[in-house]
Amino acid sequence: MALIVKADNWKASRRNGSPSRNQHMRKPRNYDKDLKALTAKARQLKARKQSQLGELVEATGADNLTIEELAGALLSIAAITDLQRREGWRKRGAAFFSGERPKHAPGTSTGDNAQPAAPHEQRPPWPGSATGAE
């Protein structure tokens, strides 16, 4: 009896929407259009990431550093593979984004090779800033 029900369902599906010999095949996919859309989306995501990185630099106060200082610090951080140290940075970053106050005062050593920050007046001016000579 179950075979008869299945056979009846198959016949009904053939009548109600399955393509027959007289119906046309579906339109082929336009891969060029899809590729262009994906490329545009990737470009948009890259621009958004760059913008967010710039905002992060400003929010953390790292925009007070010279470009060379910031690049050197980022290169040093990227070269460190110590997982315990990186986990400490991750926790500090999570606390920053959640609005928690840092456990250490700014400029004090936190065990991650942090050096006391130089007073703002002793740092070389940012190129093109209002305090820099032009």
Describe the protein.
The chain is mostly helical and 134 residues long. It is 55% helix and 0% strand. It contains four helices and no strands. The chain is elongated, with a radius of gyration of 30 Å. The termini are far apart.
Per DSSP, what share of the residues sits in E-state strands of 2 or more residues?
under 5%
**Broad shape:** elongated
Q: What is the element string, with H for helices and E for strands?
A: HHHH
The largest β sheet comes out as: none
What labels would you give this structure?
disordered C terminus, 134 residues, 4 helices, mainly alpha
What is the topology?
Blueprint: H1 2-16, H2 31-60, H3 67-79, H4 83-98
Brief description of this entry?
This protein is mainly α and 134 residues long.
